[in-house]
Amino acid sequence: MRTTSQRSITSRIAAERRVAHTVRFARVLGCAAIAGLFVPFVVAAQEPLTPPTDAQLVTRVNEYMGRLESFGYNGGVLVVRGGKVVLERSYGWANRAANLRADTNTVYSLGSITKQFTAAAILRLEELGKLHTTDSIARFFPAAPADKRNITLHQLLTHTAGFNSDYSPSDYEETS
């Protein structure tokens, strides 16, 4: 049989649990009430998103690229909106050892990094009906040499156009 002190301890623990449960419930209820009060005002205050002005866009891009530059980014940015060049600028170094800053004429050795972006752009243009992967390069380059005019975009994308390997050391020029 329990002693009076044991019953007292047990009832005190039970009371503390009830208080803790009530406090938790009040916190949840309070948060819900606060959220319920403010959410309609926040939603009502939101206006349809409008694209930034050209000046705002340039400021944002320059701020972002400046942060990247502080981590060692070297490269250029071209932003065109509605056919108008909004920003054309380079960031970082063309040659850090020679203390030469990059400019819009700096040539970068990109290797094959752009292939997937080019392929995605071509496939997107095909989805939009602006071109077909079966189109020959003569459609886009009317002055292409006669022996290259029948090469298709598909052949270029799949590396089946018949060009020799470009892994020869003499195929590349030093860029920086």
Descriptive overview:
The protein has 4 helices and 4 strands; from the N terminus they run H-H-E-E-E-E-H-H. It has 176 residues and is of the alpha+beta class. The strands form 2 sheets. It has a two-stranded antiparallel sheet with strand order 1-2. The chain has a two-stranded antiparallel ribbon with strand order 3-4. The chain is elongated and about 105 Å long. About 11% of the residues have low confidence.
List the keywords.
alpha+beta, two-stranded antiparallel ribbon, elongated
Write the layout of secondary structure elements.
Layout: H1 4-45, H2 54-70, E1 75-81, E2 84-91, E3 93-95, E4 100-101, H3 115-127, H4 153-157
Antiparallel strand pairs: 1-2, 3-4
Please report the number of helical segments.
4
Structural class: alpha+beta
Shape: elongated
Low-confidence stretches: 23-42
The tally of beta strands, per DSSP, is: 4
State the helical fraction.
40-55%
Distance between the termini: 91 Å
> How is the biggest beta sheet arranged?
2 strands, antiparallel
List the strand order in the largest sheet: 1-2
Measured by DSSP, the beta-strand proportion falls in: 5-15%
User: Would you list the SSEs in sequence order as H and E?
Assistant: HHEEEEHH
From the alpha-carbon coordinates, what is the Rg to the nearest angstrom? 32 Å
The averaged pLDDT comes out at 79
